[in-house]
Amino acid sequence: MIKTMTHFTKLTWVLLLGNFAIRTSYFMVWPFLAVILYERYGLTAVEVGGLLSLSAVFSTSIGFFTGYLADRFGRLPILMLAIALGIIAFLGLAVMTDLVSFMAFVALATMPRALWDAPSKALMSDELPDQNHRELAYQTLYFLVNVGAAFGPLFGLWAGLNGNVGLFAFTALAYLGMGLGVLIFWSGRHQVAKSGVDVPAFSTWLSILRRDKRFLLVLAANFIVFVVFAQSDSTLVQYLARENVPDLAFLISSLIVMNGAIIVVAQFPLLAVMRNWSIENRLLVGSFLLLISQITMAAIHVNSYTGWLFAMAILSLGEAILFANLNVLLDRLSPESMKASYFGAAGLCSLGYAFAPFIGGVILQSFGGVLLFLTMAFLCLLVMVIYQFSTRFAVFTGHSESLCNT
């Protein structure tokens, strides 16, 4: 594995570390924006939640289009736009004092992540023509993203973000450094190769997506996966609170720590074990573990501390397998001339996180926690069926004809 990493280009490492920096800085700031909006501006919980949710949906929607633009006009302009907006957004958050301006920069701060995601993944694909090298790069990307998500909030607390907006300026500086790294190691051949000559018009691209049955089935399965996983971040806490579980704060903290620790520690050993497995079998195993975790949550007593830890351990193993391999599958399904476009379209699956709290809340309030987890278990079974059914369709190749007619 270490030997394979020696084949990563310098630009690949910049992109990997850039994703780590963006995710870390995002979680250094984002979890505490709710506190700032409440304490500084006196917004209600509904207003804060609505603002942050709308910003997240806006960001996801932007990502759908920027993937296509990265294929049409080149990777570098979109990556540099992400960097520029990141610098502007976080500097604005550091200096703005009135509510309207601050809210505008909150929305702007969600855009760099959406702009960077698809082009950076596509550029890594450009940099690594060998499939094994590319797969390890995506696995490393997921590992670094999780490390960033785990340590970002800790850095935010350490810096005292609640009373020190200087961290916003530090984040802007991190974006600047990342942009300089991309420019230093950029190779002009990518700009030539991705000049848009082989990329169809936007309406044609949408038509291509509609006819790519396997890709659409994978997107549907991934959306459901996001819905199920998100229940452990939102609805589970509501369920435990409604049931008056003792030492709730300690239990939730334990579950969060276990989830992050297992993903970080287990990802590469799992990759080694499954090295010779097909990508489809890996996703089926991950989905099955997710299914077992939901059944376990439905079956255990609500006050069982060890039971919840056991269920979260199974869920975390499933997450480590599923999410680490989704990018690999999407890379294999996407045409060479439209890598960023396909990654951008796949970003819509993250809307599952946006809708999950509402879906879970309705089920929890109407039918209780046990039925909530059984419903999620059924959805996991549905995911396994969709993944398996999708293999009946060959990787879509009809784009070549469409391009000729563009």
From TrEMBL:
Membrane topology, record value: Multi-pass membrane protein
Look up the signal peptide feature and give its range: none
Q: Where is the Major facilitator superfamily (MFS) profile domain?
A: 11-392
List cellular component terms (GO): plasma membrane
GO molecular function terms attached to this record: transmembrane transporter activity
| Keyword set, alphabetical order | Cell membrane, Membrane, Transmembrane, Transmembrane helix, Transport
Entry's SUPFAM superfamilies?
A: MFS general substrate transporter
- Indicate whether Transport appears among the record's keywords: yes
The record lists the membrane-crossing segments as 12-38, 50-69, 76-93, 99-116, 136-159, 165-186, 215-232, 248-271, 283-302, 308-330, 342-364, 370-389
Origin superkingdom: Bacteria
Gene3D superfamilies recorded:
MFS general substrate transporter like domains (1.20.1250.20)
Does the keyword field hold GTP-binding?
no
Q: What is the name of the protein in this document?
A: MFS transporter
> Main subcellular localization, coarse class?
membrane
Q: Where in the cell is it found?
A: Cell membrane
Q: Which InterPro entries match?
A: MFS, MFS_dom, MFS_trans_sf, MFS_Transporters
